[in-house]
Each structure stands twice: as structure tokens, then as C-alpha cells.
Amino acid sequence: MAKKSQLSPAPVPPAHAWAFKPRFRRHAFGWRSQPAVQRVKEAVTEIRKVARKDPVLAAAGAVIFLERVSPALEQVDSSSGAIGSAVNRAIDDLAAIIASAPVDRATREAWLERLWCAHEKDEVPYIERLGDRWGDLCASPELASAWADRLLESTRLAMSPGPQSRGFFRGTSACLSALYAARRFDEVVGLLAHETIWPYRQWAVKALVAQGRKADAIRFAESCRGRNTNDYAVDAACEEILLSSGFADEAYRRYALRPVDGGSYAAAFRRVISKYPHKSRRDVLNDLATTTPGREGKWFAAAKDAGLLDEALVLARTSPTDPNTLARAARDLAELQPAFAAEAGLLALRGFAQGLGFDVTAQDVLAAFESTTGAAAAGGNVADVHRRIGALLLEDGVGAEFVRRAIGHRLDGDLSTACATTLASRSNVPIERIDKM
Known about the structure:
Layout: H1 33-51, H2 55-73, H3 82-100, H4 105-120, H5 134-138, H6 141-158, H7 172-181, H8 185-191, H9 198-210, H10 214-223, H11 231-244, H12 248-256, H13 265-275, H14 281-289, H15 300-305, H16 309-318, H17 323-332, H18 338-353, H19 362-379, H20 382-393, H21 400-407, H22 413-427, H23 431-434
């Protein structure tokens, strides 16, 4: 009898050699945050590059990264917030790659199980934000609904108004995200009716918007305000609802002009003008400046970047402005806008003389002086600028002597002598020695 032919198994393709994988071992980075931040960025770049050619392979790599990142970073010093921000950005990028990968349900379910295991073991936590993207990761209403059912009972107990049953459940955000992705909006709203935590209640706001109940959504969001609620987050949610409804003027009046709290003033200005292109930049700048009384000078860079140079100088004269920021403006615009640059440089020198600035060195002062006089030369008013600098150096101020020592000898003629005389009279140093400083 003839032998049956034996079919050899199909060859298994070799596993992709991810460059990031061996770098993300448990406790791989010790306490240093900067190497860890760099490695996180490199890993995301590597995965995104693969995604352009093979989205499924990239999604598989994203799952591997998210499994490994938290154990690798457990000992990293996170006090600066840099590593946390880097990981949060990575989660947003990689969750989108995983969500969009064209795979069968079995593969996606396997990925979700692995990610859930990593999420539950996340002690620090670094990948807690993954819960907010759980509905997206499910990639279908059916799978999202299955996950919602799996997590719903524990979530309901965790948010129970009774102190005996209420507690923390890692899967609460994932459950709410899955319910939302499954379009079970009434359940989301009902579940959160008596909740007080904004990161959870925001899902009810989203659910109301998805149902077309935008006015109810704004009222619900406004009712969330309180001691433990981030007003900026509530403002942003309500602003987006009004903008999406075509009520741009009301959104601007009620929510756009939020005082800056620890962020970049220039970034806040760019955010507003990008959302409200029908508003003039000058009006937006003036409106924002009124939200920070006594700190109008903080908007100088925003005004300068927007080309509102006259307004920038007015702001810098209204309240203290970082002299280093003013000095950079003088340097950058010395040739293009010499009149503005000279005024900015003079304000920088005055700021230094008043003791403003952080870790100021003599080189900083000298650089500001050179930018100012360079702008004066370009504008043809060197004598006037030198006169004003000399007068400034003769004034009293916390840092006046420091500035006189740094640049007094760089002035011409009688002004240099007057500055040296003033410095000598106040420090008992012979004029001839000061001239050589």
C-alpha cells in the first residue's frame, strides 16, 4: 500500500525583533527619569513607523510595550511629571493604533486580556489612563458591551452611595468607557446620577451629548463643580458642547477666557485664537490679559508671537515681565523690528536692575545690553538708547549694582564715568578699578 504523503506544517514567521523590548525590563531605568522619557518616546516612534506598513504588527508591538512599561518604570523618580506625561502621550498614540488594527475578534480578545492583566498589576500606576480608552480598544459595540457586562457589577458597587459597599475599583473607567462605546447611554447616565468624581461624571456628559441632549449635558457638567473638581476640565467640556452646537460667541464669553494656572500663556492664547478664528487677535489678547490682573506682563510673549508688538510693550510696562523673555525678543527682532527690540531690551535691563529673573548671570545682562544697542544701531538711535541705559543704571534697585558692574563700562563717554562714579560711591571701590571690571 502506498504511503500517504505527509504535509509539513506551515512555517511560522519569525517574531519581530522590537528594539524597545529588551530595554523595558523590570526596574530597567532605576530612578533617573530623563533616560526613561527618551526610551518611551523612542518606543512609540518605532511602533508608529511599523504601523505605516503593517498595522497589525504595530498593534501587537503596542500591546507588548504597554505590558512592559509600568514594571520598567516602577523605580523612576516621577516628581517632575515628565515621565508621567510621556507615558500618557504614549497611551493615547498606541491605543489608537491598537483600536484601528484590522484583526479578528479572537485576536482582539487576546490583546484585551493581556492589557487587562497589565492594567490590574499597574501598581504605580502608569497605565491607569488605559481605562479611559477601553471602549476604543474593543473596536466594536458588541465586544465593548461584553466588557461592560463583565465590569458592571463591581463598578456599581464601587460607586454605591452607601459607605459600607463603596470603594475603589480599577475597572471603573474601563467600564464607563465600554458602556459608552456600546452606546448604552442611559445606563451611563443612570450609573453616574449620584457620583461626585468628575473623571467618572464626564462620561455622563458625553453620553448626554451623544443622545442629542446638549443642554442637559451642560447643566450636568456645571452641577459637577466643587472643591474636588477641576474647573478647567468642566469649562473645556462645556465649551466644546457649545462650539459643536454653533454657539461660538456664548462659548467664548462663558468658557474660553480661563485664567492660566501653571501652563504657558502663549499656548493659552494660541488655543483661544485657533478655536475662535472670527475673533481678532488683539481683542482675544486684551480679554485674556484681564483674566490675570497684576500679571499682564505674562502675556508679552503671546503678543509678540502674534505680531502685536505695540500691545506687547504695553503689557510689559503694565506688570513685571521675565527679563530673559524680553532680552530674547530684543535679540530675535533686532534687525527686523529695531524700534520694538530696543524698547524690549531696555525693559529687560530695567527688569534685571529691579532684581527680576531667575539665576541671572552677568553674561545674561551683557547679552541683553548688546541686543539692545544692536537694535539701536539698526534703528539709528544709539545715542538716545545709551542715554536711557545710563539713566536706568543710576537708579536704585535690588539688582542695580549687579547690572552696573556688568555693563557700566560698555557705555560711552560721560555716561560711563557717571555710572562708575555712582558704583564707586556705593561700594567704596576706586573708579579706575571699576572701569576695568
